[in-house]
Amino acid sequence: MGPGLAVEIRRGLTATTMAHRKWLVRGSDLRKDILRKSSKRYRKYGRSKKCFKELVQLLLKDEFLVDNNKPPSSKAGTQKELVKYWRKRRTLFSKVNSMPIYMTSELWFSVTPERIARFLANFISACLPNAKRILDVFSGGGGNSIQFANVFDRVYCLDSNLEHLYCSIKNGQSYGVSNKLWMCKGKWGEHTAKKFRKLNIDCIFGSPPWGGPEYIKDEKYDLEKSLLPFGLYKLLKTFKIVSDNIILFLPKNSNLDQLSETTKEVFGPEAKCKVLYIKEQGYLKGMLCLWGSAFTNYQQDTASDSEEEEGEELNESDKSKNANIYINYDIDG
Questions:
Q1: Overall pTM surpassing 0.85 (yes/no)
Q2: What is the β-pairing status of strands 181-185 and 246-250?
Q3: Burial environment of residue 261 by CB neighbours within 10 A (0 to 12, 13 to 18, 19 or more)
Q4: Which CATH class is domain 111-293?
Q5: What is the mean pLDDT of each run of 10 residues along the chain (333 residues)?
Q6: C-alpha distances in angstroms, 52 versus 24, 30, 64, 106, 215?
Q7: Which side of the chain, N or C, has fewer Cβ within a 10 Å radius?
Q8: First-last CA distance in the chain
Q9: Cα angle: 177, vertex 178, 182; to 5 degrees
């Protein structure tokens, strides 16, 4: 494991500036050999001791490395669905052939394809040109976080699964951005949101679990009952604590009536949500939902960009009823 391996498990930012925030983890500067020697200094953090030991074990075993020669397997053996995603691994991480990439079985279903993540990062940067900090809730394997790190000074990544954070750190190292990634292991909720509110975050993004590939079987995806860990209303209420600039990546078959009603309930009767339908190679991948005037008022000159913008085909009654802005983006241009 070379000196570039970046994992800091102590729960603080820097000893000189933000040492009281011991619930954060930085994705740089400490190596496996340092972690072994430093175990005593982390014992005083109580619950983080177990987290620290688990992370050291992951480092020693070098787990979840993607093998380009054979598909991944789960405890139940190689799964057909995993093989399907493994064959498309280059769309998830373009460097998978040249650099080590790490994925758990769950991450194969949930990582945002790299081109979509890059498009989103550039779109946010265009809408918020002065933004420096972004929070990625449910960060998973770092697909979005890594691209955010290319345009933001600091990216905060939250996930309740230590294995996912481990993969994020390792993948961030392969893309050379681990020094910009700040990790937090924990569950999202009002208490966590209030902690992040103190960090002056410019934008908050979330790609919450959709419930696995089975979501596509629903004619209209229920944003209150099916979305995890809780419904859209509570998700937006807690996101709003951190920042007014909010983005969610949701299933392509999401219930638009629910989206419209919840937008008004959380932000007021005049509030709007911009919906971007994202296509790649002719296939609809999902929809980006954006709240905040910087997003809803933003108009892009697509003649000079590689993305093709088309108006989503909605009749006037639908537009009036939903009071949202619908745009279809084809990232293939």
A1: no
A2: unpaired
A3: middle
A4: alpha beta
A5: 30 29 51 46 48 73 88 68 89 95 91 94 95 95 96 94 91 93 89 92 94 78 91 96 97 93 95 91 89 87 38 37 53 45
A6: 13, 13, 18, 22, 35
A7: C
A8: 40
A9: 120
